[in-house]
């Protein structure tokens, strides 16, 4: 046993060493390459055009809270609409909307009350809070970059960094004192570290006796509704539940704009399936999709990413099931459809020491930004952890059933009760107590049998406990039972989307600067998700143009195309630039030829080229361009090119 433990500890240590080396290599690579995006210019555009901004800015703002402006709100709505079409509609998922306010008992069962914590320290004078492990890590990394350290000190600090994930509250406190960590801004001393639960606590009802939390994820609402969803689906497995909504995490030190906030929108899927059959009926449709797989082994060895098809990944054992492969492919297809460039995407597999203890396999879709690689979607095979946890807490079976072609005989443990004794002791709760015992595993029933030979047995159901005495139980015995139906707890594959993070990555990755004009910035947003699809621009304020502006804008709205009449002051070129900053993909210009020949110019944002189109065709053309029924190249083949107005910028 000692030898096995020693081998396991050595393997974990080696894994941490390689993970640190990989992290340092990625940082060095990022530092050596200039960012494609000028973040200062990008943030200036976001602020000027109010895509998003700090909440309560009039009062100085609150860290980790952001408001979306008109363009950001429309962009998010279009992303969510595409998510619903891509997943809920296409896959016949069952969407729910659950409350954000969650009683403590649910989050106790899921493990969030006990384990959803970070270690925090404070500046003793200002009270500023810092996440302790991040503070210690940054302090040691800075020290290692400097001079004057002995080789022994460097090795010691390196060992601390490698083991950071395994340190508890007390050890982190000792190390902070040993290395003289101070508050980053003021250089003041720090308090002793304390565990900080990231959930926002509250009370439900006027008495304050029912404790609750703002949900830290949307997933639990789906799990606790599993039975209802299964019944709605006519008891058929597999099926998927889905939910979109706000979640809350009281981050100790939020940073990086929309990437780490305290309130955020999630879109989560819980795909329930037979743990003995993780195939997917639609895998054939995605098996040829190529994905950049950054496997655990590649990370440990510092080797290249596998750019292979999903089918090849399954054959080579890179992914463990068809269902996992199917969702990874569908995730990539969604992300690219809403504007995350393929060359900025990779799927990174969780290393063993960062994977949840109950998970079979985990992959993160990561996007390369000016902040480095950012996780925007997680996809985990959660096995049956959550359903088991809620089943145990409520003494309720959360199972699926399969009719067997051939009956199976097996040995089970059955408990017979003295109904009179149980009824007298527990009265109205008697049935709940006996059901809870019957729902126990065979192993738990045998443990109870052993205890009842000399003492009573303590039964815990939720937050209540019951004393079971020998007089209440007539017998506990093994019997042979022929089963015609197989009961099992479904496994779950969970794709979890951070909508705010995806939104940020779309905006940053599609931020552009016009060639030969660094002051002209614009957004290359796909028409599918662009907040406004088309602008309508009268060349001047001439009254002759007003009827055309009114009719074209109305025709576009009738087709469900959001449009903006851009009749502000300035040259037509300057007005094109303003619409480009909002990511508006197409522009309709009404000029004097419109009055004469009943035609308009249609402009493409990306190429700045224009074509001349009859007014009667214009709304339909814009609709086809926005929905992908035609391309700009196809439109140019159909209508004559127009040259003239863009030169006025």
Entry summary:
The chain is α+β, with helices and mostly antiparallel strands.
Distance between the termini: 76 Å
Proportion in β-strands: 25-35%
How many individual β-strands?
Answer: 29
Please state the overall shape, judged from the principal axes of the Cα atoms. globular
Description:
With 649 residues, the chain is α+β, with helices and mostly antiparallel strands. 38% of the residues lie in helices and 27% in strands. The strands form 8 sheets. Strands 3-10-11-21-16-15-14-12-13 form a 9-stranded mixed β-sheet, with helices on both faces. Strands 25-24-26-27-28-29 form a 6-stranded mixed β-sheet, with helices on both faces. A 3-stranded antiparallel β-sheet has the order 4-9-8. Helix 6 (132-145) runs antiparallel to helix 7 (151-162). The longest helix is centred in the N-terminal third of the chain and has 31 residues, at 2-32. The protein is globular, with a radius of gyration of 30 Å. The relative contact order is 0.10.
